Amino acid sequence: MKISTIQNKLCCPFDKADLKLEIIEQTVEQDISIGSLTCTACKRFYPIISGIPIMNPDEFRDSEIEKIYYESLSRLGHPKQIENFRLIE
Question: For the chain: N or C, fewer Cβ within 10 A?
């Protein structure tokens, strides 16, 4: 996923607020392969896995897919507390 796509096109699907990008891993072309988007208003957390942002409504999100992402974050030393798909600060 290209950084410009996130900056120019994506917003939180629930409240249309801006998203904060965190890049964890990029390709040699500087595309995002692993990262996250966090809504600045409602604090919903959307992982980016293999360059694809997972931005489904809460009831359609698959915790098993996202579990792999959270485990990889933990191994990399990026502690995040997520509850009900929202970032807990």
Answer: C
Hey, how many other C-beta atoms are within 10 angstroms of the C-beta on 65? 12
Question: Do 44 and 14 contact (CB within 8 A), yes or no?
Answer: yes
**Structural domain harbouring 55:** 3-88
SS3 59: helix
Per this entry, what is the length of the chain?
Answer: 89
DSSP assigned state of 44 = B
Section 13-37 average pLDDT:
90
Q: How many CA atoms within 13 Å lie on the side-chain side of 78?
A: 15
pTM of the predicted model as reported, rounded to 2 decimal places:
0.77
